[in-house]
Design a protein that fits this description.
The chain has 277 residues and is α/β, with parallel strands linked by helices. 38% of the residues lie in helices and 22% in strands.
Length: 277
């Protein structure tokens, strides 16, 4: 399915690397791009010894809205300069509260673009926001590193393949991107005790070949590093400009899903990562 509708969660500070990527992506695919600025409303503690002053609450509310509006304005200007079909919105949520007001904007779209956690300019609830969109929106998520990206049309793509349903969904979501790529590598990491029949990765390579894609399979057997480090080392050694992979962890429990390889890659990623769950 073509990518024709993109939503990007805007940063409240900085150079907006995710928004820039989403807009360039939208221009390349003739897609409509929506910028969503999130206003984080302050929480009133239930155990407060005295009621919070109304003036304080009003000022905090206005400050949160002003920060979101400023971010929205930056996106609108970037969109104007890029000449991409676009619109912008503001979603209000309670800090630390449920994110349904964000999810309702994410679900009716083809792709959500959001920036990696920036340790130098931390955003409120950014890690939880990424986790919730990935696991609850039903939409693939493209994570953009906080250092930005030099390439807006990926040409050298790495697919992390483990045969899972999440990796399968990620590949399906990435098909419009993969069709334009010049090099596609399917990376299969064979851990000790893995049991696969036939050539690892051959099934998905054949599938992509039927879409007229040139695919190389690379198998790493018994890696000395973690899955995340193995993927990131491959990116560094081969100058990949996009990683496509499933978003998953090692536990079936919801509170532990966002961990393992997923968390490690998102913490140390240097190129955009397209994930699906």
């Amino acid at each position: 399915m073509p990518i024709k509708d993109i939503l990007t969660v805007l940063d409240l500070a900085g150079d907006q690397p995710a928004a820039k990527y989403a807009l360039e992506f939208g221009r390349n695919y003739d897609a409509h791009v929506t910028g969503l600025a999130v206003s984080f409303e302050p929480v009133v503690p239930a155990f407060a010894a005295a009621p919070m002053p109304v003036d304080y609450l009003q000022a905090a509310h206005e400050q949160a809205i002003a920060a979101a509006k400023e971010s929205q304005g930056k996106f609108d200007e970037l969109a104007r300069l890029t000449a991409v079909k676009s619109e912008s919105r503001v979603a209000e949520i309670l800090t630390g509260g449920p994110l349904e007001n964000v999810l309702v904007h994410c679900r009716p779209t083809d792709l959500v673009v959001v920036g990696q956690v920036n340790p130098d300019q931390p955003e409120p609830m950014r890690e939880l926001l990424i986790e919730t969109i990935l696991f609850e929106s039903g939409v693939p998520v493209l994570l953009v590193p906080y250092i930005g990206s030099k390439e807006y049309q990926p040409k050298n793509v790495l697919i992390g393949w483990d045969g899972s349903s999440t990796a399968t969904r990620a590949i399906h979501a990435a098909l419009p991107i993969l069709e334009r790529a010049e090099n596609i590598t399917v990376l299969v990491i064979e851990k000790p005790g893995s049991k696969r029949s036939g050539q690892p990765g051959a099934d998905v390579a054949s599938y992509l070949a039927r879409h007229n894609m040139q695919v190389t399979i690379e198998v790493v057997t018994n890696p000395q590093a973690s899955v995340a480090d193995t993927v990131l080392n491959h990116v560094s050694d081969n100058s990949n400009d996009l990683v496509v992979m499933g978003g998953y962890g090692h536990s079936r429990m919801r509170e532990f899903l966002f961990g393992g390889a997923t968390r490690e890659i998102l913490e140390a990623m240097t190129v955009p990562v397209l994930m699906a769950h």
